[in-house]
Structure formats: C-alpha cells, structure tokens
Amino acid sequence: MTSSNAPIVPITLTVNDRTGLTLYAPPWEDEDGEEWQGFLGDGAKILLYPNTADLAAFIASGEENDLSDHPGWGQILRATPDDLRPSSEDHYDLDAVYEWAGDEADPVHVSALANVVDMVGRIADCCDDGALRRLVEGTPAYADLVDAEISYQGKDGRKRWNELGDTIADSWERAIGRVDSWLSWQGDFTASEFSDEGTLWDRVGAQPIEIVLPDATYLTVRGEILADIDGNDTEVAFIGGDDYVAVFTEVPDLARYCRTAKEHRLVKLEWWGEVADEEDDDAFAPGDAARYDLRKPSTEGAELVRDLAEFCRLEADLDVLDGTSIDKDDWTDLVSEIRTCFQPQD
Fold this sequence. Notes:
- The protein is of the alpha/beta class.
- The chain has two domains: 9-185, no CATH class; 200-344, no CATH class.
- The chain contains twelve helices and 13 strands.
- Strand 8 and strand 9 form a beta hairpin.
- The longest helix is centred in the middle third of the chain and has 27 residues, at 154-180.
- The two termini are 47 Å apart.
C-alpha cells in the first residue's frame, strides 16, 4: 500500500550473527505522484546501529541521508531513543531462515519467512540490486511464499514447503551475501542491545531481587540510573516512590506492577519500556544470585542495605557497615530502620 504520508519505522536486520537497527520508509508517493521507498542510508549503503542511542545520535547530528527528504523525517528528528525501538513485528532475522524452513509449516514459521523474504526484496529494489531481485522475486518458491494466497497445508502444500526448503538450502547463502554487501555497520556490535544474548533484565539494566527478613520475604527491583543530566555518574534506584520502595510477596504482583506503574525512578531507564511487553511472569522471579538474606550480617546484604538507605534518604548510621565485621545489634537496628521505607503492595 502506498501513502503520501507513510511513516518511517525502525527495524532490525540480523545478518551473519549481527543484529543492527535502521529505519525503513514503506512505499510513499511524492507530490508528483511518484512512488518511493527507502532505508536510512548514506547514498551507497544502508546504515545499521547497535542501539537506539547511537541511532538517535546520528539523527541529531543533522547529517544528510537517504531519508532526509522523506515527508516524515521531521517526526523522526523529534523521536526519543525509546521511540526508535522496533515493534515486535519489525525484526527481520535472515540467519533464522534455515531453522524456520526446517520446521513444520505452521503459521508462525510461514509468516516469519515471508516477512524476511519480502524485506530482502525491498532491499534489492531500494539498492537497485538486479541480481538479488532476480534471486528473490524471480524464484517461484520465494514468490509463492510472499503471496498470501499460497497454502502450505495438505499434500500439495507440504510439497511446496519442501520445495521452498530446497530452494533456501541452494540459494539463501547467496541472498545473505548480497544483502550484507549493502550494509554499513556503524559502531560497536559486540554488545548490541538487539542481540539474543542476555536476559530482559540485562538489556534493561535492572534486576528483580528477593529480600529475606526475620518474619517476611519481599520482592522488588533494583537498577542503576543516571545521577546527572550529563550522564557522568549513576546511582542505585528501586521501584516505588519518593523515599519508599515498593515490595511484593508474590511474583505475579511484582510483574503486574512493573508492567503498569509509571511513577517510579526506574522508568528513567532507557529500555524500561521492554518490561511492559514481557508477558511471562516467571521473567520477574529473582535468580538465586539475587537473594539477600538480611537476617544476619553479610557483605552482599551490607551492600543492599547501604543502597536502600541512600535511596530512601534515611539518616542511618552506615559507618557500622565499614568494618571487617558488623555488630549483630547494630545490624538489627539498621535493618529495622531500612524496613521503614518498605511499602508492601497488593
């Protein structure tokens, strides 16, 4: 579908074990009625970035690019890094094509394959790569895949699915090579935020934790946020409000709060928005290494107590934590004071 005001959308491409972020402009018509589509590029190649911060920095630089004349570029100039995160439908994994084709022809695999092949065709068109265009659009098995009317069910459908698998085995490596030749990877991709490595919490920069007290066990989330606008320092923060920490006794309650609550310090984290999209409550369960037993002094517990006291602005005597050993009575008094800033949630 073509539109005179089609939006520019962020997408990721995964090629040869690297995942990068770029912008794609679906077909739109200019004032003369001519149809265009395009990617964020430098006139020769498509630009890919390892994270939205780097992409946002490029946009803010004002450097000319292949989408500068797009009617929606002004909106992109106003976009925040969070606005530049692709939706779940805008990830195109060229490496996963072999795996999908080797599985059953269920709707998920068929749709994923069709979307990737269609995007490769768009790259061929935008980069004017005749060889890639012929490989994708001129191959019946690929053309059928993109055709929404084709079914891979039943005897004939299974035959078509097997033929598609043979085609992929024979030609997809060439397709990946052609696509990669049109990509310019900008920045450090050793720690791309769009990589499959790491958990949700690794990407967000926070961690669910469990706090064990003599008569209760609480769950909350701790993370590090920027302490100043220059980004030169960080400070530990928790979910909750001014001077209090929201704590929970059940994982589903913690998960619900993290998905919906807006008035807490951790929403300042650049990727906190991903938490709202996490549907599995188990992802909010603290790991074994995130369990802090405050029933007795410990090095790990002392670190948490210090963070809690500073976050809640308690006038507690933290000097008792500085020695090689901590007096049990001092520890008990300090933990009791820390507990006053816990606010249990339903």
